[in-house]
């Protein structure tokens, strides 16, 4: 375009160079300095929201077990509000940026017209050159670029909206119960239960009586159905046939909040949430004091390790707990269960990632904590079963 302007008049080429540098270099640098903080805040908030959602998805078992759904939703709402405000700031900057850019484009377009008009009046340039140079300047800024990209942005927005709507319309696997009489734990039993994932049978004609105040052990190899049994006791899923009873009631007639309150659940793989170690233990009890958290950590044989860290309980665990070993995560999971202090404790391979020394300390703590509590202990380790008052062998979805 500069060459074309040169053919109209060399001064028009010089004027156009200055215009293009102003719009293509000076303005973007100026705008970048103005919007840098807002853009950075928006991206940071968006990234943190993404991590929070992924974190929550990985930790759905812990969230359900410790009845933290409302708290996580409140935190998500707060993060969405922060994202909205930073996006609003960014939109204001982007709007002003477009306004200033358009103003500058108009300035140079009219500037070219009057500049060439002066040359024409002084017989330095012809009328045709006046028209061509002005039209070339007006058209060369590409005002249709923003319009052409609008369709792409809009299609992406609509596609994202469809994905969000499909997620919102997803039916829950189990409907929560909130309108039944309050229930406290008085024992549990499983009556002739069958359960399958699709065509694959996981549990077949399983019956089990879990007496209050007893420690019941279930031993078996991986894949035998032990973990599934615990999840049915938590009512993460409903059985295909048969019934699960809590305190003599069908589990479907027990308020979900009551069930979560009375039950402590330690999974095979403890999920860490973004935040400090104290925050991760506090998942089990939002209003817990530091002293309560420390006592729970001592019972889980993790207090000495945490105290030895430079920031102690304020140490950030990193995304999904990447800064902790599997054994350390598992002991934090146990600390959560101790802090929650439910009457019905379900332990799924609670010492699978822990060395023999720490296993002994944890089993001792569980033995001391078992007074007045009912514990179902699942493990493939024979040594873990030493805590149980009664032990069952499970293989291929049945008790042998």
From TrEMBL:
<dbReference type="InterPro" id="IPR039421">
    <property type="entry name" value="Type_1_exporter"/>
</dbReference>
<keyword id="KW-0547">Nucleotide-binding</keyword>
<feature type="transmembrane region" description="Helical">
    <location>
        <begin position="103"/>
        <end position="121"/>
    </location>
</feature>
<dbReference type="InterPro" id="IPR036640">
    <property type="entry name" value="ABC1_TM_sf"/>
</dbReference>
<dbReference type="InterPro" id="IPR003593">
    <property type="entry name" value="AAA+_ATPase"/>
</dbReference>
<keyword id="KW-0472">Membrane</keyword>
<protein>
    <submittedName>
        <fullName>ABC transporter, ATP-binding protein</fullName>
    </submittedName>
</protein>
<keyword id="KW-0067">ATP-binding</keyword>
<dbReference type="Pfam" id="PF00005">
    <property type="entry name" value="ABC_tran"/>
</dbReference>
<feature type="transmembrane region" description="Helical">
    <location>
        <begin position="12"/>
        <end position="30"/>
    </location>
</feature>
<dbReference type="GO" id="GO:0016887">
    <property type="term" value="F:ATP hydrolysis activity"/>
</dbReference>
<dbReference type="InterPro" id="IPR003439">
    <property type="entry name" value="ABC_transporter-like_ATP-bd"/>
</dbReference>
<keyword id="KW-0812">Transmembrane</keyword>
<dbReference type="InterPro" id="IPR011527">
    <property type="entry name" value="ABC1_TM_dom"/>
</dbReference>
<feature type="domain" description="ABC transmembrane type-1">
    <location>
        <begin position="1"/>
        <end position="156"/>
    </location>
</feature>
<feature type="domain" description="ABC transporter">
    <location>
        <begin position="188"/>
        <end position="400"/>
    </location>
</feature>
<dbReference type="GO" id="GO:0140359">
    <property type="term" value="F:ABC-type transporter activity"/>
</dbReference>
<dbReference type="GO" id="GO:0005524">
    <property type="term" value="F:ATP binding"/>
</dbReference>
<dbReference type="GO" id="GO:0005886">
    <property type="term" value="C:plasma membrane"/>
</dbReference>
<dbReference type="InterPro" id="IPR027417">
    <property type="entry name" value="P-loop_NTPase"/>
</dbReference>
<dbReference type="GO" id="GO:0034040">
    <property type="term" value="F:ATPase-coupled lipid transmembrane transporter activity"/>
</dbReference>
<keyword id="KW-1133">Transmembrane helix</keyword>
